[in-house]
Amino acid sequence: MNATEACIALNMLPTVGPVRLRKLLEVFKEPQQILAAKRTELRKVEGIGSEVADQISNWESTVDLAGELERVRDFGVTVITQESPSYPRSLREIHAPPIVLYVWGELHERDHHAIGVIGARRTTHYGTESAKKLSYQLAYAGLTIISGLARGIDTAAHQGALAAKGRTIAVIGAGLAKLYPPENAALAEKIRSGNGAVVSEFSMEIDPDRQTFPMRNRIISGWSHGILVVEAGLNSGALITAAQALEQGRSVYAVPGHINAPSAMGSNRLIQQGAKLVMDASDILDDLQILLPETKPSPAAAARPLPPLSEEERRVYDAIDATETSIDDVTTKSELSSAAVSSTLLQLELKRLVKQLPGKYFVKLG
To answer: Which of helix, strand or coil describes residue 248?
Structure first.
């Protein structure tokens, strides 16, 4: 048995959990040693009582590890632990980071830079379109969109990221073999097919319930640099996630809604309480400042290679001089139409490659 398999077994024991596992690892060092330890040795560990010690020492009678590993293989899932390079760095910092993450799809280095987009399941047309638009812009700019695959805002957030050909991660409150909601199976398949991953901390056959969703939400907030609440009522679970984000030291953003709309009362209240009001992706990008610094970039940042650019993006980018360049000069040098230049400049702004100055002048960043 290797360390990952031992972590899978420990994760399947209901009384262990991330906090107790941390205590156990301080004593036994390796997860395999925890499963091999005697009951008396386990009970000496702080926070490990008789019930937990008995469950660990008898783990083989309650955990079908061979069956779980077979389900993982059959489903095409990868299981990672906190020791894995692809385990989100920011997620390791929270109070109770998941013992394991079941990953259906692939995680990339860029997924460490993520923003959570959440909101109500029952949403308005305004809320859905806002979530799609902002997720599109943020994904286009290079951020990975994290959400929960739920109906409503979550679904719109994933769709917006996919439309931008960006990255998106769906964190679900169930085992991957019990994908929920079932009507989003096609969306989940599209996410995992080269655009991101569907992720869970639960073993493959765990059904969703009232406990699994709050646990899922702490992963969304813990993984992300910040949380964007698009539309949420006063009793929305999105507000719980926002509260978790604040506890974890993350930024909270909110889209304003109609003052008489019940679906927006929670998100409007967040703005009253200090969440940053968001009308455009730039409101978040400027606040996070994690892509390309706008002032005093380091030599390493200045030498960073450009992201992939389309032919039009390259022509417009190259048409901007080292100093301020007017939009008329960009149009002339790029030999593109005014409409094409305007839309391409917006795309370059979202990618944090150029910045617009007063008077329709543009400068390169980095």
So the answer is: coil
Which are the contacts of 93, defined by CB distance < 8 A and separation ≥ 6?
A: 222, 248
Residue 126 pLDDT class (50, 70, 90 cuts): very high
Which CATH number does the domain housing residue 303 bear? 1.10.10.10
**Alpha carbon of 354 to those of 249, 278, 291, 317, 324: distances in Å?**
30, 21, 12, 8, 10
Residue 28 has pLDDT above 70, yes or no: yes
What is d(CA 338, CA 274) in angstroms, rounded to the nearest whole number? 40
pLDDT at 297 over 60: no
Asked if 171 and 200 sit in the same domain, the reply is yes
**Is the bond into 14 cis (omega within 30 degrees of 0)?**
no
Report the alpha-carbon angle 48-54-55, nearest 5: 90
230 contacts: CB under 8 Å, gap ≥ 6: 117, 118, 119, 123, 127, 130, 131, 134, 153, 156, 157, 254, 255, 267
Tell me the per-residue pLDDT of 236-248, one tens digit each, with 9 for 90 and over.
888 888 888 888 8
| Domain-embedded: residue 293 | no
Q: What is the 3-state secondary structure (H, E, C) of 155-180?
A: HHHHHHHHHCCCCEEEECCCCHHHCC
- Is the predicted pLDDT of residue 357 greater than 80, yes or no? no
On whether the pTM is more than 0.85, the answer is: no
Range of the domain at 189: 103-288
pLDDT at 304 over 60: no
